[in-house]
Amino acid sequence: MPADPLSILNTVYGYDSFRGRQRDIIEHVIAGNHAFVLMPTGGGKSLCYQNPALARPGIGLIVSPLIALMEDQVAALRQAGVKAAALNSRLQFAEKDRLWRDVERGKLDLLYMAPETLLRPETLERLKSRRLSLIAIDEAHCLSHWGHDFRPEYRALDCLADLFPDVPRLALTATADTPTRREIVEHLSIGAHNSFISGFDRPNIRYCAAEKTNTMQQVRHFLEPRRGESGIVYCLSKRKTEDVASTLSAHGFIATPYHAGMEMKAREENQRRFQHEQGVIMVATIAFGMGIDKPDVRFIVHADLPASIEAYYQETGRAGRDGLPAEALMLYGAQDMALRRRFIEESESPDACKQLERRKLDALLGFAESSRCRRQVLLRYFGDDCGPCGNCDVCLDPPKTFDGSIAAQKLLSCIYRTGERFGQAHVVSVLLGEPDERIGRLGHDKLS
């Protein structure tokens, strides 16, 4: 394997040049430095650890949260001639034994595993005697208490700084607000000066939101001109996932469900179809999506309100990874908000976490109801800025607005001058000048 990062890019990946900050990150890591990488979905994060792992001597250790993601990346790397493997619970004893023999003989370039596998004492003991080129922690936002995909086992990865002090550590994510970034960098002892923050903008995605009227009708209306395209419809419950998939199938769409209540074999088959067949619509709960690398997803529909702006950004980011136009539609309603608030209040999270989740939910509602460019609102939440994008529903069809300040002044004045003790109907009747015996008796018809 060539040691030069550009040669690796050419021979392994078939590209002539790096994108964005990829080269800066790769050279930084090859030099032996740690790195925190925040890069939008489809920005080429995996290249930022695979390339330097191949350029440096030793085995690259990749921590990944999902078996499906590991297996997809390993299959692609092997096809490109890279010696890669994944250590996970699906392997038989003999397969694990053979894998470790390959590790000991230096026959592997990249080794993938989940955090719980890595943190087993026997795994750490075996790795301590090997030369590691780097340790990459993918989906690093999973370690944050403030993140939307918190996984306790990710917290324990802070031990890697002590166990492998001379090995470059990378933490990578596509979704992290400022508090989450700070927590990742501090918890993994990476150092804020080793941060590489790319912009959050996905200019090829058109963001749209609409208040719910008839959810199934709205979803079908959106999908009708997109027949034959691949996409994901997110639902909040398992039952709704099944219902929506069944209804879409009955109307001639190729729709298949995915949720945690299904048998593993059925889930895997539906995921395989979505990944490899054209025009399949995956109707899913949030159990589906992390690590899915299908470049031609043309749309994401949220049939129910997502949990937060972070969750929304990550889920919509699964569309348009090929750089071609894609669309994200979010449907929302008062019932969604009530249900989300109930989830927060009934959770066993500490009060500080509940308070943060409430703020994040309010921010999401603000995004949904905003009369400003959706991209501006979305990017500003993450600390980015841009002008009106011209590629969201608000920019393309601005909502009708009016200056309600005078009407509001009259309303407040009426409430004050009637003694602040009458109900809505009475105040409205006074303002409209409606003839009413009670209004006349109280002298409220004389107010001006």
Give a verbal description of the structure.
The structure is a single chain. The chain folds into three domains: 5-197, Rossmann fold (3-Layer(aba) Sandwich), CATH 3.40.50.300; 205-396, P-loop containing nucleotide triphosphate hydrolases (Rossmann fold); 405-446, no CATH class. The protein has helices spanning 5-13, 22-30, 45-55, 67-79, 93-104, 115-118, 121-128, 152-155, 160-163, 178-187, 215-223, 238-250, 264-276, 309-316, 334-346, 351-369, 374-381, 393-396, 405-417, 424-432, 437-442; strands spanning 35-38, 59-63, 84-87, 110-113, 132-137, 169-173, 195-197, 205-211, 230-234, 254-258, 280-284, 297-302, 326-332. Helix 2 packs parallel to helix 3. The chain is of the alpha/beta class and 448 residues long. The relative contact order is 0.09. The longest helix is centred in the last third of the chain and has 19 residues, at 351-369.
Shape: elongated
Oligomer: single chain
Just give the CATH class of the largest domain: Alpha Beta
Provide the domain count. 3
